[in-house]
Protein: Putative iron compound ABC transporter, iron compound-binding protein
Amino acid sequence: MFKKIKGILLSLVALSLVFALAACNNTSNATAKGEAKKVVILTNADDEAVASMEKALKGAGYDGKYVVQSLGTSELGGKLMAEGDKIDANLVTMSSYFIDSAQKKYSMFKDLTFTTNALEQYPSYYTPILANTGSIFVNTAVMKQKGLPMPTSIKDLAKPEFKGLVSIPNIMDSSTGWLLVQAIITQYGEQEGKTILHDLIVNCGPHLESSGSGPLKKVQAGEVAAGFGLRHQAVNAKAQGAPIDYIDPTEGNFSLTESVAVVKKDDPTTELAMKMAEVIIKDGRKDLIKDYPVALYKGETVSDVHKPAHSKKFEKPLTVDLLQQHQQFFNSAK
Structure:
């Protein structure tokens, strides 16, 4: 009797092991086919850019196969620099200088496996999804009311007549502020540039903004007469009938790109992430360029109104270390 029960128990254990092994095998097969996990996309992009990317992904049949998590630039940048390829993401869209710096530290991104046809040469592990360019803008009604001369340079905004009437983004909070600092240092050097920046910050008073779009909002509201921020936003505001005009500063129009990169995890989900990265560029750019009108790829065109008069690049590669140096320069000018 005991032998019979023992035999039954052994048979049940053996049968359980068979089912367990079968289940594991099925899970392994599902994972191997890339069906088990969704692609996790971490992005610092604005809502408009996220909508364009999701439209492209859904149009390509990837609805339900990914999840998007939006983070601020500082938060996502901090995760990249702290976690490397251990980050909980398969695909990243982020300010290019952060991607460059994270790759230098961790070698965490895979080389892209598709042809991009970009107008400029970029590293093998990322390609831009959009670009933002800086410029001056003014409220024409306030300028007339205050009897102010039309500025042609960032230096003009540091003159005494603009005291309390200027708004700029704070480089400590907004990468748009970096476009301003790059222009000042390029044109005037750090010594003269610090004096100009000091006077400009004094003129801003309480109008030093934490977001890149903050200065334009202040200018549109008539709280200040002039500001510095994203060029395409000012162009669009003017086209919509706001009393806004934009000026390409003589110091130059500097730009920052945001790019897509695939995290090097060497698993089936990474292959799917690479396909999605290609879709974002091949299918998503037609909508992205409408909101961020800077041509980045062959065959793309933008209207003349969206072509800055003084496009320039900073002489050194843009990295997190350089950003921190320029943040220190900004703070020392206060």
Observations:
- Residues 131-255+309-332 form a domain with the D-Maltodextrin-Binding Protein; domain 2 fold (CATH 3.40.190.10).
- DSSP finds eleven helices and ten strands in the chain.
